[in-house]
Design the sequence.
């Protein structure tokens, strides 16, 4: 197997994880600045495989959200989220 760099693969204390920045124009919509997922393994080889899979899924997710934005009538970049937060109950 080729030894390619995996920029989204991060090593924690005991396990590997995946971290990817959310594009700036999608941060308000998704309500996140980065996507973080535990790969739930301490084995480097397994982590590399899982990182590639998760990376492909995240790229598809971002493309899907961008397509959703284009379909929203009257949506402007920088406006409110497509996924509004639920109001918190008052005590």
Sequence:
């Amino acid at each position: 197997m080729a030894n390619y760099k995996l920029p989204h693969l991060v090593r924690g204390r005991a396990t590997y994880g995946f971290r990817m920045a959310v594009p700036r124009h999608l941060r308000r919509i998704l309500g996140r600045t980065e996507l973080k997922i535990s790969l739930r393994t301490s084995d480097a080889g397994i982590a590399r495989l899982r990182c590639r899979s998760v990376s492909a899924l995240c790229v598809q997710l971002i493309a899907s959200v961008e397509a959703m934005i284009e379909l929203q009538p009257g949506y402007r970049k920088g406006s409110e989220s497509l996924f509004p937060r639920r109001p918190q109950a008052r005590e």
The chain has two helices and three strands. The CA atoms of residues 2 and 48 lie 11 Å apart. The chain has a mean pLDDT of 84. The first helix runs from residue 24 to 30.
